[in-house]
């Protein structure tokens, strides 16, 4: 193969890259198999198929099986298409799918630019174009990985930095040929070509294991989140709310401002599911939680304890203040019908309010708040009842 390819050993490296990409395709097919597939992984697998085909075509051209006028432009066209799809997959994984289409369009532009360079200067200019364009697409993937730097994990940050550095090494080979035809001191173009070959191989390995590890990391984060967060309302579930409550129960044993707990239940919610169906009930619950959150401070915590029973933790809040908060939530629910696909649904809720006492456990605290809520229901529903001393002694 012509020495314009940034390879340590042209024939061996092209074959390694071809087999490596095709092997990753097979692995990813089994990893991402199932009725629901991650879009980013699907695009990434497609990119490896295209790149594997590109490197295989170049390897066949190097072996003399396919004529050079076919293998070189055809192989590079597939290669640019593959790295463009890979960059688009990185933007999809970064939750910026709107950037995927422009990236694919730029892939088509890159193919046209390369063909133009190939026909103008079959040897030198196409080498410059190949290195610069490949480096640019890999650099785009690095930017996508580091897009939300503050929220990114250490693994994602490392991959962003490593991919960016390797992309610059690939692009540096083209820049060196363009700006410094004779090299720069000890860093000759031949040596830089070898560095670029190594960078391409490391990008293959880094992107392969990086994407799989990132996917595994995100799946683990999702599973951990589902343990404490209710997926329907995006509020803490019973376990998550109890975890938030535990330190405040411990603090109640020390002198200081009290912490309040509100427990409320949606009155007659079963009729919503019976009359409009469970999908409408899910919409009602989701919108109701959003409505309640608008009545709370940032420090307050709203959780879905079970079914249609919810709890609100109000740090540093007295009983009278908590009753006022509960009344505000009650009025908001009562006066704001929820819009579903089939109807405007009017809801009411009954509330029980108490404060955490030094001797409280989670059981005694919720028992007191639940009994106050039952008093509100017995009194006619759609009202707020504070826990009385008699209830507290139960």
Keywords:
alpha+beta, elongated, 9 strands, five-stranded mixed β-sheet, 394 residues, 65% helix, Alpha-Beta Plaits, two-stranded antiparallel sheet, disordered N terminus
Task: Summarize the structure in words.
- A hairpin with a 4-residue loop joins strand 1 (229-230) and strand 2 (235-236).
- This protein has helices at 10-31, 39-62, 68-93, 100-120, 124-145, 154-179, 189-228, 238-251, 270-276, 278-293, 319-335, 362-378, 389-392; strands spanning 229-230, 235-236, 260-266, 301-306, 309-314, 338-339, 344-345, 349-355, 384-386.
- It has 2 domains: 10-229; 235-392, Alpha-Beta Plaits, CATH 3.30.70.270.
- The strands form 3 sheets. Strands 4-5-3-8-9 form a 5-stranded mixed sheet, sandwiched between helices. Strands 1-2 form a two-stranded antiparallel ribbon.
- It has 394 residues and is of the alpha+beta class.
- Helix 1 packs parallel to helix 7 (189-228).
- The protein contains 13 helices and 9 strands.
Query: Would you count the extended β strands for me?
Result: 9
- The coarse overall form would be elongated
Runs in which pLDDT lies below 50 for 5 or more consecutive residues are 1-8, 390-394
Radius of gyration in whole Å, from Cα? 31 Å
Strand order of the largest sheet: 4-5-3-8-9
Could you say how many structural domains there are in total? 2
Write down the overall mean pLDDT.
82
Question: What structural category do the secondary elements indicate?
Answer: alpha+beta
Order of helices and strands: HHHHHHHEEHEHHEEHEEEHEH
Largest sheet: 5 strands, mixed
Discrete helix count:
13
**Strand residue content:** 5-15%
Beginning-to-end CA distance, first to last residue: 87 Å
Q: Roughly what percent helix? A: 55-70%
């Amino acid at each position: 193969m012509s020495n314009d390819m940034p390879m340590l050993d042209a024939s061996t490296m092209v074959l390694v890259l071809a087999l490596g990409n095709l092997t990753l395709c097979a692995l990813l097919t089994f990893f991402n198999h199932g009725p629901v597939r991650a879009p980013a992984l699907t695009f990434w697998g497609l990119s490896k198929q295209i790149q594997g085909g590109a490197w295989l075509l170049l390897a066949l051209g190097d072996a003399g099986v396919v004529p050079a006028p076919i293998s070189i432009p055809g192989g590079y066209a597939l290669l640019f298409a593959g790295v463009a799809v890979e960059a688009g997959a990185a933007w999809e994984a970064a939750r910026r799918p709107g950037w995927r289409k422009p990236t694919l369009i730029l892939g088509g532009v890159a193919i046209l630019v390369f063909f133009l360079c190939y026909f103008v200067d079959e040897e030198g200019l196409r080498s410059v174009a190949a290195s610069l364009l490949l480096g640019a697409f890999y650099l785009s993937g690095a930017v996508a990985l580091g897009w939300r730097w503050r929220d990114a994990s250490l693994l994602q940050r490392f991959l962003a930095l490593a991919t960016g550095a390797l992309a610059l090494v690939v692009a540096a080979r083209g820049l060196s040929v363009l700006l410094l035809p004779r090299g720069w001191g000890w860093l000759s173009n031949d040596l830089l070509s070898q560095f670029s070959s190594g960078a391409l191989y490391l990008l293959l390995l880094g992107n392969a294991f990086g994407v799989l590890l990132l996917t595994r990391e995100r799946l683990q984060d999702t599973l951990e989140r589902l343990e404490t967060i209710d997926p329907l309302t995006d509020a803490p579930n019973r376990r998550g709310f109890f975890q938030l409550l535990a330190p405040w129960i411990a603090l109640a044993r020390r002198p200081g401002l009290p912490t309040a707990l509100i427990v409320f239940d949606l009155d007659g919610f079963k009729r919503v599911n019976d009359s409009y169906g469970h999908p409408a009930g899910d919409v009602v619950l989701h919108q109701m939680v959003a409505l309640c959150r608008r009545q709370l401070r940032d420090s307050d915590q709203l959780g879905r304890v079970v079914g249609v029973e919810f709890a609100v933790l109000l740090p540093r809040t007295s009983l009278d203040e908590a009753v006022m908060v509960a009344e505000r939530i009650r009025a908001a629910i009562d006066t704001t019908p929820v819009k579903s696909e089939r109807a405007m649904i009017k809801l009411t809720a009954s509330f029980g309010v108490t404060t955490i006492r030094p001797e409280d456990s989670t059981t005694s605290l919720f028992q007191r708040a639940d009994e106050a809520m039952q008093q509100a229901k017995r009194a006619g529903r759609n009202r707020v009842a504070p826990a009385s001393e008699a209830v507290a002694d139960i």
